[in-house]
Amino acid sequence: MISAVSRAYLRANVQAVPNSLKPAVLGTAQGKKVVVAPCTDKSLPVGNTRATMGLQTIHQVRLAHSDLEVPDFTPYRRENVKNANRRNDSAEQRKAFSYMLVGATAVGSAYAAKGLVNTFVSSMSASADVLAMAKIEIKLGDIPEGKSVTFKWRGKPLFIRHRTGAEIATERNVAVATLRDPQSDDQRVTKPEWLVVIGVCTHLGCVPIANAGDFGGYYCPCHGSHYDASGRIRKGPAPLNLEVPAHTFPDEGTLVHKSAVNIHCVLLKKIGNMAPRRKLNKNILLMDKQIIDFVKEHQFVYDRSHENFNNNIYKEDKWKQLADSLDEPVELIKKRWKTLKDRYFRLMKNGGVENYKYCHDLNFLGPYEPRRRSIIRCKKEENYEDNSQMDESLDSSHSPVDAVDNDMFENNYTLSITSLATDDAKPTKLENHSIVCEEVDEIALEDVLQMQPKKRYADTYAESKPTKLENESVCSNLYEHLLQSQQNFAQLFAEFPYIAFDRQYLVYIVTTMSTAFLTAIAVILCILFRILNVNSQPLKPSVWCLDQQFLDTLYKIAPVLKEPYVPTRLWGFSGHMQTVLHSIIGRVKCPWPLGERVYLSLEDGSTLTYDLYQPIKEFEDDITLAICPGIGNSSESVYIRTFVHYAQCHGYRCAVLNHIGALGSVQVTATRIFTYGHTEDFADMINNLHRKYPGTSIITVGFSLGGNLITKYLGEVQTKKPESIIGGISICQGYNAVEGTKCLLNWQNFRRLYLYIMTENMKSIILKHRQVLLSDESIQRHNLNEREIIAAATLPELDEAYTRRVHNFSTTQELYRWSSSENYFDNIDKPIIFINAKDDPLIPEFLLEPVKNFVVSHQQACYIEVAHGGHLGFYEGGFIYPNPVTWLDRTLIAMIGALFIVHTTPNKHKSGVPAQC
């Protein structure tokens, strides 16, 4: 059997061997096929290859034509794909696509994770209906008389009306018998001047309009229900008055709504300090008898199958009749009946119902025992005097009921009730509360306090050990028992879906987390690892230098060049993070060195300033560092202050140039600010330093734009430079403004975003001094258009509208060529060191080729390339929090010492021991 390659490239002289069942029909070849070029794997068959035929072999033989000419589609291809060897362009495009894909995936994953995390976190907190039941406190002093103000309470609008004296008199004079829902004004208000109602129409749940309607109260525009200033229905289809929620007035100007949720299940009063409970008086016993007799006569109160059970109007009417006969509020009567009914059902389940004084009176409720169960948990605070176990379980049926003030019971306590699962059916929407708060009267409280200790759970969990009340809850016991019995968490949550949250619940959530959520987390982590380059390793700096003696001196004075640069572990390997953090925070624990500001008046009317800092500790050698900051920076920039302080500690005098316009405290006095290649300002500072300190040795240090300026200054022939300049150091400059600007206009490596930030920074400087820079005289002299300057979205647009016109350049390209420092390399006659980071997001790698070519062809020139560091970042050390002194600061101090040694003899070099600062 021949290979697939052989079958694909059979030559014309193949012989077919027929089988015995079917003769072979051979085609005649018109000519011998000549192989023009071998295939990619160079495995064309040679010699007389034969095709063996069997019973199932097809007799047809296909011949491969390898002599066909392939058309040349080069003229139709794009310029960036014609040459396959252009690795830089293709790499940039692949990197841009990778970042775009990673960014889009990060946004989508973050959006998906947001919903999942929100759902997960929400499951730990109380439900929305519980939070809506929390109490609110309202300051009444801000509500003017005669106005109605709306608040949100329990998810509903709450109307608070400050009634006038005329409204109070009018509502009190209304004949109660003529009302559809009879209620006097005194029954609806606690204080006559304040009306508090829930702003929901009792017809179909609409929200009425305040100070409207035929009766001056509220008007529902949906179906025309009119309410008076007491919230009573006077006209329209609404059957009932507006609901009055429970509220109190703790002081003259404060309103508090009650029934607040007690999330932590703690009694509001200390049980150990309770006052003795007085016995129920005869009036209460008589009222209980009348309530029970009333319920016996009206089966619709407790029988869900009764035809009037859902007829709320009919039920309210009957309850009002009973309340009127007892001369008590309707809410209090309902509350009292619920208390009697709940206690009866609890005693039926837990035993001891025969000792209940109303046992025989309430035995008609036996067939109507509710199916829902709940646990009342009374948690004692740490400072309780009684250390007995107070965490008892009671079963009861309950529904959320508003707390009502009444004088019938002396002590009322608030308990929180945690609902558990139903026995079989799902709970109704009304009952679906994870935590329900209600007022508990003395009878219910007595059940809690006098209950004998017993097992807290169902028989399934009867063997769980008791738990200390101060440290654990009922739910913790359930979890602990399930863990000891090696049962699954799912069993617990299947039986108790509303169980409270604790640490084990978190374990359960994590172990049962959905695949989508775990996938989203994995994707986000992968994206972070990709962006932060966490898998990168520390590398030694790469050094280019022709002069071996110069290089040896650098290695001797600066051993940091032989050591790997170790960025901050979590984010330091990302050039973007280094750059962003440098622009936001600069340096950590930045000092503020003390110096003096020197003012210079220039020939064109500009005011130039630089800050002069003296060394903290004096050394034998007198060295001054002439520092030129980056674009829009000054001596007040954080990274400049940190380096200056570090240099002062090593005995160096520092002079920092303040770019014209960069300082808000220094007024611009001419119609120009700094530019990318204007070295006259830096030269004036150098000349002033030379006059002040004629015996000092000056070393120029430039950061970013400042690196371009000091390189251009050292290479300019027409500029007369003092002999005291012994060298220069340039950090993170781009060398070629023409090509660099083109790169910044593209979105590769997010350079367009950085360009936008730099443009806005330059525009802010111009607009900050617009009174001078954009005065009428300046606009006329330089033919400026303020609207074009403000509307500029990129630096080339801003330079076209402002910079080139002010400095008399015909085009921006001419300005950029004049500003590019690489055009002045050949004229540099001083020792110079260049430092750049390979992952600098502002400077692509191909812009670094000119400086590499320069240093390998000139003496006393060196180029240091660091794999990481970003643009002027170079943070090092730590996992998240970097060291206060960066790798760049340490290296610059060493480079300064090396340049001084190159200039002088080794016996005169400065001591390397810094001052203790």
UniProtKB/TrEMBL annotation:
Cofactor needs: [2Fe-2S] cluster
Membrane topology: Single-pass membrane protein
Predominant location: membrane
Keyword Transcription regulation: no
MF (Gene Ontology): 2 iron, 2 sulfur cluster binding; metal ion binding; quinol-cytochrome-c reductase activity
TM annotation in the entry: 505-532
Cellular-component GO terms for this entry: membrane; mitochondrion
PROSITE patterns, alphabetized: MADF, RIESKE, UPF0017
PANTHER family referenced in this protein's UniProt entry, alphabetically: CYTOCHROME B-C1 COMPLEX SUBUNIT RIESKE, MITOCHONDRIAL (PTHR10134)
Similarity comment text for this entry: Belongs to the Rieske iron-sulfur protein family.
Stated name of the protein: Uncharacterized protein
